[in-house]
Amino acid sequence: MHQEGVRSERPQSVAISDVIKVVSDLGNKIPDKSWMLYLLELFNKQHIPVELNLICSFNDDGKFHAIFEGINRYEFKIKPIVGHSYLRQIVMEPSKHRVAYRLMDEISGQIDSFFFDVDENLFDFSIYKHFTGLEWHNRVGNIPYQIRYEVEISNLAYGVHDDSTDLKSVTYFPYNQLTPDDGGLAKNYPASFHNFETSNGFIAYRIGPGKHNMGIVNKFFKPDL
Fold it and tell me: What is the CATH number of domain 2-220?
């Protein structure tokens, strides 16, 4: 497995969110039996991963999956289309003993949600950190390969309860920092991370073809004035 991206920490958040836009199809160069992920991932205080990823495999055009503790729990009915933007949300719901996953196509308005029940005695609902980036799973070699889609990631956000009496009420706020998080298993990656900016106060960046070997430097952002 090879991983490259950025992480943010926000200890008191109850949700994470982003928008992923499929900008262009670069062709399927994924090796046999292999796949890659465009990640929206959080870790709780037990370091258990919870993810809503766009997964592209050697034999398909990509699918959105809800993942809990490394296992695919649900395949969303919404499919990736070039030019479309997709709102991804993961919300901790401890009062209902579950994790909520929500995906919306912002062009068509189509929405698909999935709820995964968890044992509150075994799972800590506190969010420790949030990861955004790429992950490669190469089953026939030891190096990452060309990404399937050029994408734009925007509206990176964390959610908090703004009303203690209404646990369904979640307000989203922008991050102001990205911290590098490199899996360290490859000397370079066939992808570029660029066009870092803020849009309406929220961090945005683009993932495209290229060569990336320096790691993503710490980036601080000021809200739009």
Answer: 2.60.120.1270
Chain centroid to CA 46: how far? 19
Residue position matching structure tokens 């945005």: 204
Token pair 């030019």 in the structure block, residue:
83
* Dihedrals phi, psi of 96, to nearest 5 degrees: -110, 5
The domain ranges of the chain are 2-220
Report phi then psi at 151, rounded to 5. Answer: -135, 160
Give the phi and the psi of residue 109 in degrees, each rounded to 5. 85, 0
Identity at 87, one-letter amino acid code:
L
CB 149 within 8 A of CB 26: yes
**Beta strands of the chain (E only): which ranges?**
2-8, 15-25, 35-44, 49-57, 63-68, 71-75, 85-93, 98-105, 111-117, 127-137, 149-161, 170-174, 177-182, 192-199, 202-208, 219-220
> For the chain, how far is it from start to end, CA to CA, in angstroms?
40
Tens-digit pLDDT profile for residues 141-164: 888 899 999 999 999 999 998 765
Residues 48-100 have pLDDT tens digits of: 999 999 999 999 999 999 999 999 999 999 999 999 999 999 999 999 999 99
